[in-house]
Structures are given as C-alpha cells and as structure tokens.
User: What shape does this take?
Amino acid sequence: MDVQLTAAHWVYLAGILVILATMALRKNIVVPAVVATFLTALVFSGSIVTGLSSIFNASLVAAKELFNIFLIIAMVTAMLGALRQLGADRLMVAPFRRVMRAGTSSFLVLAAVTYVISLFFWPTPAVPLVGAVLIPVAIRAGLSPISVGMVIAICGQGMALSSDYIIKVAPGISASAAGVDADAVADKALVLSLIVGGTALLITYFSQKRTWRTPSPDLLTEWEAEADSGVGEPTSAPDPSGPSGTGSTRPVRPQRSGPPPPVLGEAAGTATAVLAPTRDDASTFEAPQPDKERRGTAKAFAMLVPLAYLAFIVYLMLGKFTDVVPPLKGGEAAAIVGGIASLVLFAAAASTDKGGFLETTSDHLVDGLVFAFKAMGCVLPIAGFFFIGNPDFAAPILGLSSDATGPAILFDLVTSVQAHLPQNAFVTSFGILLIGLVAGLDGSGFSGLPLTGALSGALGPAVDVDPATLAAIGQMGNIWSGGGVIIAWSSLIAVAGFARVPVLDLARKCFLPVMAGLVLSTVFAVLVF
Assistant: This one.
C-alpha cells in the first residue's frame, strides 16, 4: 500500500521519538506530549486556533476513554479505606499469609492467580480483584510495591491477554486479517506468550529480589501511610508509630466524636482497649464491650469481601461455561467489581460511624478519586497525544465534524515501514514485531491486530514463514505494548493505581524484561515454528 506522508506525519513521528527519548532519560513526558499534540494539530490544520484547542480536546478525549479505569481505582481505594478504618483490612488478608509467607511464595502466588483470572476473564476484572485481596498480603510478605505491579502487569495485561487463549478475540482478529485459521494463531500465540512472560518474570524476580524486605506488618502500615500522605490534606504531623521509628508523616484528619478506634492485633485480630480496665472503676471495666462488638464487625467484613468477589468469579464462570446466567460483555465485569466495592464501602462506613456514615462515605469516595487523579492524572495529556494518531479519536481532537473521519497518522506511519522490509525470515519477523510494538503506542491492545495480521498474510509466503506464525508475533508486539505493560498511557495505570506506584516508573521497569522476552520468543518462533 502506497501511503503519502505529509508534514503532520513527520511532526507526529518526531513527537514519538522525543517522548521515547525523554522516557529513556527518566524524565516526565507530559510537556513533550502536550507540545507534540499542539504542533501536530497546528501543522495538520494550518490553524493556530485548532492547535491550541487540540491541547484541551486531547486530554478531554483521553479522559472519556480512561475514566472507567480512574473510577474503579477510586471505588476500590475508597472501599479499602473504609475497611482499614474498621480494622478489617488486616483480618481479611490473614488467611493468605499461610501461603504467602515470604517474597518468593508471594511472587509465585500473585503471578499464578493473576494469570488464571486474566486468562479466563481478561485483566479488567482481574486487577481490581487481585488489588483488593492479594496486593496487601504481598506487601506484608516483603515484596516491594513496584515488584507487585510488575508481576500483575506481566501476568495479566501481558502473558494472559497476549495469547487470549480462552476468549480468543485477539487470535480471531489476527487470523481474519491474515487469512489463516484462528486456532493456529491461538496455539502459537499461547506458546510465545509463555516464553515472553516466563522470561520477563525471571528477569523481574532476580532484578527485584534485592528490593524485598523481611515480612512484617509494618510494611503494610508503611505502604498505606504513603498512600494516605499522597491523597490526604496537605497538613500533616509526625507519626511516632511509623515503621522503624522513622517518624513518617500521615495526614491530620478532623477527629470525630465518640470512642477512639481499637488497635487490632495483626495475628489474631484481638482488640486492645485504649484504657485498661480496673476493678475499682465499673464504667472503665465496661469500656471494652464496644471494642468487642467492633472486632466482630471487622471479622464479618473480613469474610464478606473475599466471599463477595469469589461469588463474582463463580458468576463469571457460570456465564462463560453454562447457560445458567447470561455472560458478561464489554466493561460489565469491571462495572460489577466497582459496584461491589461501593456497596461494601457504604456498609463498612455505616458500621464504623453509625451517626455520620453519610459524611464518612463521602470522605472515602473523595479520597479515592483524589488518589486516582493525583497518581494517574498526568497520563491524560500523554494519552491524548497518541489518540490524535488514531482515526477513531483524531476527529474530535482536531475539531472536525462528528461525521468526519480523522487522519490515521500512526497507521500511515506503520504501513509505510512495511514496504522497506527486506525479504528475510528473521528481518521480516522482527519487522512485524516492531510494527506491532509501534501500533500499540496508542494504548489499545487490539487496535493494531488487523494491520499486523494483514502484513503477515502478505509477507509470510514471500519469506517462507507460516502467516499464522507472523500473525502471532505481531500479536505479541501489539498487546504487550498497548495492552498495558510497557506503555504508561494504557490500562497499566490500573495496575499502578492498585500497587500505588508511579505509572511511568512501572512502565520503565517492565520495558527491559518484556523486550528481552519478545526478542527471545521471536527467535524461537522463526527457528521452531
């Protein structure tokens, strides 16, 4: 296909290169993304008005597309805040400590659970489920937050989604475009995804192991305190009970009337009264009764939350494998996860503060939303720049009419590259991989599959490589890139949100392990398949 590149294409390509270079230097890429958006729109339209308005429109379009991720992070974070105030968060994770006792066991359990759930139901509901139940256990067992984020991203958005072996949407798209059997693509994609994921997990394990710490409940306290300090009020005071006696800071919140909350024992969930009862003071002797009632409520919620999400998993399986209930479609699974989190939030807040639970619930929701936007808000202008290269989003960003089709700038750039690929099996295979990686830069895991599939069908016979193999290679590049592992403006923001780490740092940490896996899997595909 002969594509005529314009000045806007070259400006957009220069913007991509500057952003990638800025990321390599470990600098924030918001300013380069905004400037590149402005220049691309200015050169394309020839109007400075369109260029200026595109800065706002790009972030607005990105916000519309990504707000579901922001919202589910906010809801689950708010739920965890209410459970923490009640004391149920530590009790909830206690049973998992029997298996996740140290860093290695936590690493393996986290990887296995994330992969299985994501393979059957896609990562969208898997990340909130793992984030709500297993991430706190892994943190307490000594894993660093960045290690937790890497494991979840590699196993969920990467290894499970790149093969899509159960649901088979991705292999179906690739196979249709390549003109081959979908099962052939799925089988090869499964093997390649395991090679990429296994390689990335091994590199992650050995590179991150030195950052793991001795299991301790203080680690969970520290992790929660750091999140609180990030989303709370600016006023803070030293917390003498902080981990290791370092005087960590926590936000100072208005104190509510009523008895102070009990301190729940980590191991057995025992409550310690603030005032020790004495035989001579009857009123003080009766004081522990509210604490005992509160402890029972905390235990009830500690059982309720995992059971609620377990019931949700059962519902998903029934919908997928039987006709008992209708299967969930699109974003319905994520919506249900958020709905469950909201109801648990309301109930936990009411149990903690019966008189003022309406205000308490609102406080937790606001904290959750502030946390989501404070941690992930910088992604919006970055995603907006890459959206301007996608014809599905370019029209509203450039101010075109609603029925107009936007320019396919990124697609045109990728298509123009394929004409220059030499007729060699290795070069063609790595070229398809590169095209898949570049096509994934818009942050959508499946958008480039028709392109890589079509190129595989056209180039495979010429270089004596099975088109299904090339399609599987292109699928690896596209989904490991745009599906949410090495691109920060994708669903990786959900993983970073639950692990409570900067999303750009998480993307940088995942880059080398994933690229090493992709190179190894491509070599394997050419030599074996």
Notes: Confidence is low (pLDDT under 50) at residues 231-289. The longest strand covers residues 236-238. The chain is about 70% helix and 0% strand. Strands lie at 236-238, 249-251, 263-264, 271-272.
